[in-house]
Design a protein that fits this description.
The structure holds 2 protein chains of 2 kinds.
Chain A lengths: L7 H26 L3 E3 L3 E6 H4 L9 E11 L3 E8 H11 L11 H26 L3 E3 L3 E6 H13 L4 E11 L5 E8 L1 H10 L4
Antiparallel strand pairs in A: 1-7, 2-7, 3-4, 3-5, 3-6, 4-8, 7-8
Helix pairs in contact in A: 1-4, 3-4
Chain B lengths: L2 E3 L4 E6 L3 E7 L3 E7 L4 E6 L18 H14 L8 E6 L15 H15 L3 E7 L5 E6 L5 E4 L5 E3 L1
Classes of the chains: A alpha+beta, B alpha+beta.
């Protein structure tokens, strides 16, 4: 099984899985913030490596990335990526701060890591319930840097088995549009087979 | 001035005038080779240390070992001489930190080690490097003088 062998129906199914997982994650985020959270219909993107770094607009764009490994029945990773302004606004909401910090302090970074943790857990729980697969996540790790550098991490993991990257992307927006983030699920190649066969597609 | 972008798992060569650049280099490694005498520069952006560890290894530019070989081949086609080549190396950072020694997450370090090993085998001297750390880099290789500009967010700008 390779990315190239996925047909349109399989891609639709992966998108639907993203939809169910992200829906659960959006609900969790809304609960945490006590605010409305909107999300788009998740998009399944299959990209050449050279195009991965530009997926968030620009390779040099300063972003905050929260990374978690997926383990057990499924391997791969989940990333939640925010632009810096969104990250500051989100941490202010979580910590009930009204300041105009231009940087993220330790407390803010820890709060954002926890958001990543909760989003990933709720995503993966929905995915696990749907497929009856046992999926666990690692502790979150946060980095603030160029988008290209951050995205190189999941891309490299794909590099071991494929010449393209498959990612399921959902865009979240808080009701007042002061926070916008991208959640990426990147299951590795063997995991597609497991997901699809658990649903009776393969 | 001609500016050519070199993306992940890609490489390119330029002669006489222009810049080869990689934006937002993370755990991948940027390998800049230069023939000063013939003014030929090449930049490779491999993602993984070795083509021998992996079954699907058709894409040569994806790996340090085969990437360097292919880059040299292309530089020779553009008029470079193998014995003139010198190297500069950048990147190979560890973007995310975890407690456990995760092989995948230490890939940056492994990419740099593989680069040094391969260049040593080929007798190509590394004249300067800016590797490791936990931050991304944008690099620009200028074919006119072989200088490699390294830009970061929060860790300064330098020419190596």
């Amino acid at each position: 099984m390779d990315v190239e062998n996925l047909n349109a129906m399989m891609i639709d199914i992966l998108g639907e899985i993203g939809n169910i997982g992200s829906g659960n994650a959006a609900t969790a985020l809304a609960g945490m913030l006590s605010k409305r959270v909107d999300m788009n219909v998740p998009v399944v993107k299959i990209l050449e490596f050279k195009d991965v770094a530009g997926v968030l607009g620009g390779e040099e764009e300063l972003v905050v990335g929260i990374y978690l490994d997926l383990n057990k029945d499924i391997s791969g990773n989940i990333m939640f990526i925010l632009d810096l302004e969104s990250a500051i606004n989100l941490s202010n909401m979580l910590l009930n701060r009204i300041d105009t910090e231009e940087d993220l302090d330790d407390l803010a970074m820890s709060a954002l890591s926890e958001v990543g943790n909760i989003l990933a857990s709720s995503y993966v729980n929905a995915l696990g319930n749907l497929t009856n697969l046992n999926i666990s996540i690692s502790v979150p790790s946060l980095a603030i840097d160029m988008a290209g550098a951050i995205l190189s991490v999941p891309a490299i993991q794909f590099g071991y088995i494929s010449d393209r990257v498959l990612l399921i992307e959902t865009i979240f927006e808080e009701g007042n549009n002061s926070v916008r983030g991208n959640l990426f699920l990147l299951p590795d190649m063997t995991s597609f087979e497991k997901i699809l066969s658990s649903l009776g597609v393969l | 001035m001609k500016i050519i972008k070199v993306g992940m798992a890609d490489l390119n060569v330029i002669k006489n005038l222009g810049i080869l650049t990689t934006l937002g280099l993370g755990s991948c490694v940027g390998i800049a080779l230069y023939d000063e005498h013939n003014r030929v520069a090449g930049l490779a952006h491999p993602m993984l240390p070795s083509s021998k560890e992996i079954r699907n290894n058709a894409n040569k530019a994806k790996f340090v070992d085969t990437g360097i070989e292919l880059l040299i081949e292309k530089m020779i086609q553009k008029g470079a001489f193998r014995q003139n080549l010198t190297a500069k190396v950048a990147g190979g950072s560890q973007m995310f930190s975890f407690d456990k020694n995760n092989n995948i997450l230490k890939i940056g370090e492994r990419n740099v080690l593989a680069t040094k090993k391969k260049l040593r085998e080929l007798n190509i001297q590394i004249v300067s490097e800016d590797t490791g750390g936990n931050y991304g880099r944008t690099i620009e290789l200028n074919v006119e003088d072989g200088s490699l500009l390294v830009k970061t967010i929060g860790h300064g700008i330098k020419v190596i």
